Amino acid sequence: MKAICATDLSAASEATIESETCLECLGRIGVEEIHLVTVIPSNVHAGMPGMNFEKRREQALERYRRVIENSDFNVETHVVRGTPYRRINGIAEAVGASLTVVGSRGKSPLENRVIGSTARNLARTTVVPLLVNRIEREADEPDVVREHLFRRLLYATDFSENAEQAFEAFSYLHHATREATLVHVETPKDPGIPEDDDPEARLTELATRLEDWGIETRTVVRRGDPADEILAAEAEYEPTTTLVGSRGHSRLRRLLLGSVSEDIVARANGNVMLIPPNRSA
């Protein structure tokens, strides 16, 4: 399995790359090859006085390469120019990556948003599963907020096709997962399943599949606003990562990123793994 690790060479990006537990978790789920990608924005020109951006970034990536190679991964580096999220998505497709990882600072004291423009645009357009690795915000030398990326997973589902696809990620995540909380939120505004269906029974069926892999599992049905209730479940159970599909049932939501998953990516305290629909969907 190949993974893209997108970095802007900031302290937050460095925290993701140099976290031994994060690298260990990637190895556990089958990642063998990591592509380090940094993008020089189009509006930064090579001829600017005193600036040799390509050389500086290549040197920084070489240091990161050594760290990752010491953890027994094969590593390729890419210094490219353009719009960051577009180039990252393009490289993910070109190399056949199965995962993109991007670091993101924690909640701002000034606003209830946590992701910068590149991470936000990746969440809206990613062509492969996207892991937003949450990094401490108020720290000179920030660290990851929650180690062991996939040890405790919160899986949120509305039983849509894309949510079912997100559940299939457990086929490789289970190698690093010990606990899982399966959550469905009932809401009269945007029902996800027929009225005569039983969400608790459907969650129990999914839980049985995870328990066959030795994962300790609980199921939770909540009622209210989906994003608020999923985030409340995250606060209650403190998963290391929240797993969610990027498109739900509602045809009124934006096609590439429903408002529920956007809120989760933006407001979650911990890591978020977003699974996009199949390209043919």
What does this structure look like?
The protein folds into two domains: 134 residues, HUPs (Rossmann fold), CATH 3.40.50; 123 residues, HUPs (Rossmann fold, 3-Layer(aba) Sandwich), CATH 3.40.50.620. It is of the alpha/beta class and 281 residues long. Strands 3-2-1-4-5-10-9-6-7-8 form a ten-stranded mixed beta sheet, sandwiched between helices. The radius of gyration is 19 Å and the shape is globular. Helix 4 packs across helix 5 and helix 9 runs parallel beside helix 10. Helix 5 links the parallel strand 4 and strand 5. It comes from Natrinema saccharevitans. InterPro entries: Rossmann-like_a/b/a_fold, Universal_stress_UspA, UspA.
List keywords for this structure.
281 residues; alpha/beta; Rossmann fold; 2 domains; 10 strands; Universal_stress_UspA; Rossmann-like_a/b/a_fold; Universal stress protein; UspA
Query: Percent range for helical residues?
Result: 25-40%
Q: Which stretches are poorly predicted, pLDDT < 50 over at least 5 residues?
A: 106-115, 250-257
By CATH's scheme, which homologous superfamily of the largest domain applies? Answer: HUPs
For the secondary structure, the number of strands is 10
Secondary-structure element order, as H and E? EHHEHEHEHEEHHEHEHEHE
Q: What is the alpha-carbon Rg in Å?
A: 19 Å
Mean pLDDT: 82
What is the multimeric organization of the chains shown? single chain
Strand content: 15-25%
What is the SS-derived class? alpha/beta
Distance between the termini: 23 Å
